[in-house]
Write a structure and sequence with these properties.
The protein is mainly β. The chain contains three helices and 15 strands. It starts with a strand and ends in a 10-residue tail after the last helix.
């Protein structure tokens, strides 16, 4: 199992992040000074750099991809060389009293689904599944309930090295979308507590605590 962290180092207009694999820096990420539909940049020590660019729901549909329109905007994922290598967008699992929203990633020919599960007293859990063929979990992200100075911190684990970039790309996308409403603010000496509990049983089932023991 690979372990690491994803740490926000700068807030405000030009948010910045660092990603660590064990105790060594694995990647850096940044969001340039553009509050609305910013391009997101992710530079990995794996030798690849990526740029996430916003795309409309209608343009995504023309590519044969149906996304859920509410909430977070979809993005295309490009290599720094300009080659399109994936998409990230929202989907909705339908069901009477059991429907929920989740994130779908298409990346380097692979399919991923990321779910958000809130555990009261522990924080948010983000299980990541590969969805080609039989769905199986390949990574897990955790975020504590307390955030200081609006600098988000996440811990992560991934079974395979090939999925680490997916973890970083998702976190850059998620953190930008979750905090875009306060991107214009710079806060010092703050403490924010987010307590929530997921009640949807189908969504709760996506979080398998035993994954951390693999």
């Amino acid at each position: 199992m690979n372990h690491g962290s994803f740490v926000q180092t700068k807030q405000g207009f030009q948010a910045a992040y660092e990603m660590y694999l064990e105790d060594r820096k694995y990647a850096s990420a940044r969001i340039p000074n553009d509050v609305f539909h910013a391009q997101l940049h992710f530079d990995s020590n794996s030798g690849c750099s990526y740029i996430l660019k916003p795309i409309s729901i209608s343009s995504l549909k023309k590519r044969g991809i149906t996304a859920y329109g509410a909430g977070r905007s979809p993005y295309e994922i490009y290599l720094s060389t300009g080659e399109l290598c994936g998409f990230i967008y929202q989907k909705k699992h339908s069901g009477f009293l059991s429907g929920y929203q989740y994130t779908q990633l298409q990346f380097m020919g692979k399919q991923y689904a990321v779910y958000v599960v809130d555990i009261w007293g522990e924080g948010a859990k983000f299980p990541i599944y590969r969805t080609e063929g039989q769905e199986h979990q390949v990574a897990l992200i955790e975020k504590p309930e307390v955030v200081y100075n609006r600098l988000d911190q996440y811990s992560w684990m991934a079974l395979y090295e090939e999925d680490i970039d997916v973890v970083g790309l998702y976190l850059l996308y998620f953190d930008y979308m979750a905090n875009n409403h306060n991107r214009m603010e710079v806060v010092k000496s703050s403490k924010e507590v987010h307590k929530a509990k997921t009640l949807n049983k189908a969504l709760l089932a996506k979080y398998d605590e035993s994954f951390k023991q693999l």
